[in-house]
Amino acid sequence: MAKIKQMNIVAEEISVDILEEIYKQCDWQLGQFLPEAAEGNQVNETHSYLVELVVNHLTNRIKK
Asked: How many domains does the chain have?
């Protein structure tokens, strides 16, 4: 049981790192989907949607 608990802790730490990288990559790609004058809520909503799409694609790949 201790090994499974340790694996869970490691998995949590990895997921934090992976999510940070997903956010960075989405930030970097975001400009191609927004007009130059985009601000605030539009940027946040577009970023959130892109992150969600990436996570969905990852989930689909893992489930195969």
From this structure: 1
